[in-house]
Amino acid sequence: MLNQNDKLSFLIPVHNEDKVISKTLRECYEKLKSLNINFEIIVINDGSTDTTKEILSQVDYVKVLNNPYNIGYGASLKRGIASSSGNWIMIIDADGTYPISDIDKIIKPAGDYDMVVGNRQHDKDHFGRKPAKWFLKKLASFLAGKKIPDLNSGMRIFKKSVALEFWHLYPSRFSFTSTITLACFANDYFVKYVDIPYYSRVGRSGIKPRNFFDFIALILKLVVYFKPLKMLSPLALLFLLAGLAKLVKDFVVNGYIGTLALLLILFAVQIFIMAIISEVIIKRQK
């Protein structure tokens, strides 16, 4: 649990949530107040075009940051973190999907970990999304070298210092949570998952099917950034095996070694050397 010297900055990014924002803010404030901790609530209104801004102007127990136009989930969270005064950051969505009653379950282990994440239990997950989510989770876990139960849960608490360390990596849109998750695992920070229910959202989701490929690109980019040797070694091995296979075929069938076989082997060596150099550079920067 947070101690008396800690302060929690509770961030809620909002975009067109006038149907649920009043209820969400009231419940969050009452829950945090009951925990007897030092906290502030920061709402980042990301260019809402409904009555969200007017509703927020009437709430006196939160700090409101109004973006003049929509800049994205990640960019809004970065603005909230930059304006926060706490040494711990907690985020939650305003759409009614996360259990506000379980805020204490996320905060309680925080003192012993660098980040605590709500592991969403999907009772009624959309059938079409299950394979995509399973693939992303397995890919991220394999590349990070650790089991990742939930890659992009939007209910979590983390040290502000950890968030600032990877500031330059956060994208403006939906991948803030995925980025900080992979960054923490890749850099051996202590992460704990706590099971939480996950409800149907109020309103429409901003996630599109095309974002699946964006998430894959993000995962690959981050793993190349943090663990290039693990990412590039299989690629080098693939070129090496292809080159050796072509070499054997050329020698057995044609009696000579072709140029393509040598090029494939050369590519394998170059990729592996590049991976080693990148790994050394990353280690020296830490």
UniProtKB/TrEMBL annotation:
Membrane spanning residue stretches: 231-248, 260-282
InterPro entries: Glyco_trans_2-like, Glycosyltransferase_2, Nucleotide-diphossugar_trans
Pfam families: Glycos_transf_2 (PF00535)
Sample GO molecular function, one term: transferase activity
Keyword annotations: Membrane, Transferase, Transmembrane, Transmembrane helix
PANTHER family, A to Z: RFBJ PROTEIN, UNDECAPRENYL-PHOSPHATE 4-DEOXY-4-FORMAMIDO-L-ARABINOSE TRANSFERASE-RELATED
Official protein name in the record: Glycosyltransferase family 2 protein
Organism: Candidatus Buchananbacteria bacterium CG10_big_fil_rev_8_21_14_0_10_33_19
Organism classification: Bacteria, Candidatus Buchananiibacteriota
